[in-house]
Specification:
Blueprint (H helix, E strand, L loop, with lengths): L1 H6 L1 H30 L1 H22 L4 H10 L3 H28 L1 H9 L5 H9 L1 H16 L3 H50 L16 H35 L2 H34 L4 H28 L1 H8 L8 H26 L3 H26 L1 H25 L2
Helix pairs in contact: 2-3, 2-9, 2-11, 3-9, 3-10, 3-11, 4-8, 4-10, 5-7, 5-8, 8-9, 10-11, 10-15, 11-12, 11-14, 12-14, 14-16, 15-16
């Protein structure tokens, strides 16, 4: 029995991936702990707003190409094809980066107010925009390596990134507080890009693959399917988070918004583990088949093997919630216990539905995927807007749970009827 357990491919991937994720979580915990000490609730709220802005910016300037880059790199088996794929994506990212920079500069006052309110951090927004082409090169490089199954390089580069983050966290947050924390988000991808090119230069002379003459419009057409789905999800999620944070801050207080932001930050830590297993193990399996019985077997494996692990993990977080909060934050943040259990319930419901979302992507059900994302996030925002007046911050969490139950229902029905 034990031998079969260790030979099972799912548990092999689970164990291998866990090492990287644990390292990422440790780095994130230290960074967040420093933020809680030096920034406080309101500072964390502002930082999370900026983090949502960077996520939204990446979604736009990177054009939702992640899954497309991995797929095209994986199916390319010659230097000529690599040149065609990488050159096309490189120049496409370059164009979207410059469009993004132009739009940010043109609308800087609106963007600055939307993210920071009356605080003057517009120069950080401009800096992030101007450096986006370099961050996009790092994005292209890592996904190309992943498509070529260069897992050792990817893990090494990511690990260096985690260590770099923690070193910069100590220096920038302790010395420059909120501005330092936001500068960290800007500079790490750039430094990591330089390190990445140095690490792989003996294996892949990356810039030899790039030329305007290799650009191929058929590749662009094939990428649009992936881009559209990823752009919708990548843009709507941070936008909804910014809206909810503004809603809480306007109707309740900046401290209450800080509570919500801090709980979201904890959720990101453990949900990274869930989403990474889906990306690494279940999504590739779903992508390789078009037979309903095989889809059914993969989904059954997800519920049989993975969901019990997720449930036990979330239950452990609930039992040890005081320890978890104090590990990440300080005693001033113990108020998070009043709402943490609601976030855990929401994340369990989300975990139940994730596999159906990945199935829609694998089957390229573009309009269903977009519609269900809009329904889920729209109901979350609308419910929060209505119930915050009557139920305060609890109303936001009830709306989140309700929206995720709706998403689970519609994606499950789509699975049943899209045979």
């Amino acid at each position: 029995m034990n031998i079969k357990f260790f030979k099972d491919s799912f548990y092999k991937v689970l164990g291998f991936n866990s090492i990287s994720i644990v390292l990422k979580i440790i780095m994130g915990l230290v960074s967040t702990k420093l933020s809680s000490i030096y920034l406080g609730l309101q500072g964390i709220n502002t930082l999370e707003n900026f983090r949502n802005f960077t996520s939204l910016s990446d979604s736009f300037s990177q054009f939702g190409l992640q899954n497309g880059i991995v797929k095209y790199s994986a199916t390319s088996h010659s230097i000529k094809q690599d040149q065609k794929v990488i050159s096309t994506i490189f120049f496409l990212l370059l164009v979207t980066s410059f469009i993004f920079i132009f739009l940010i500069i043109l609308n800087i006052n609106y963007v600055k107010f939307y993210i920071f309110g009356n605080q003057s951090f517009g120069f950080l927004v401009i800096a992030y925009a101007l450096l986006s082409p370099f961050a996009n090169l790092q994005f292209l490089l890592l996904n190309y390596l992943q498509g070529k199954q260069g897992h050792k390089f990817v893990i090494l580069i990511n690990s260096i990134g985690y260590v770099l983050n923690i070193i910069l966290s100590f220096y920038l947050i302790i010395n420059y507080h909120l501005i330092g924390a936001m500068i960290q988000l800007i500079v790490v991808p750039i430094i990591l890009m330089i390190i990445s090119l140095f690490i792989i230069h003996k294996k892949v002379v990356f810039f030899n693959l790039i030329s305007i003459h290799y650009v191929n419009f058929s590749v662009i057409k094939g990428l649009l399917v992936f881009s559209l789905m990823n752009l919708v999800s990548g843009a709507l999620t941070p936008l909804s988070f910014i809206f909810i944070r503004y809603l809480v801050q306007s109707n309740l207080s900046a401290d209450e918004a800080g509570v919500w932001s801090s709980i979201v930050r904890i959720s990101v830590f453990y949900m990274t583990f869930v989403s990474s297993i889906c990306n690494l193990y279940f999504y590739p399996k779903l992508s390789k088949t078009e037979i309903f019985s095989e889809y059914k077997a993969i989904i059954a494996e997800y519920y049989r093997k993975f969901i019990p692990i997720v449930f036990l993990g979330l239950l452990l977080c609930f039992v040890l919630q005081k320890v978890v909060i104090l590990l990440i934050y300080t005693e001033d943040f113990l108020i998070l216990r009043d709402y943490f259990y609601l976030q855990l319930i929401a994340d369990f419901v989300k975990s139940l539905s994730l596999i159906f979302g990945y199935l829609l992507i694998a089957k390229k059900k573009i309009w269903q995927f977009i519609l269900f994302e809009i329904i889920s996030l729209g109901s979350y925002c609308l419910g929060s807007y209505i119930f915050i007046e009557y139920l305060k911050l609890d109303g936001v969490y009830y709306s989140l749970i309700g929206s995720l139950l709706i998403y689970f229902t519609v994606t499950y029905l789509a699975y049943r009827y899209n045979k």
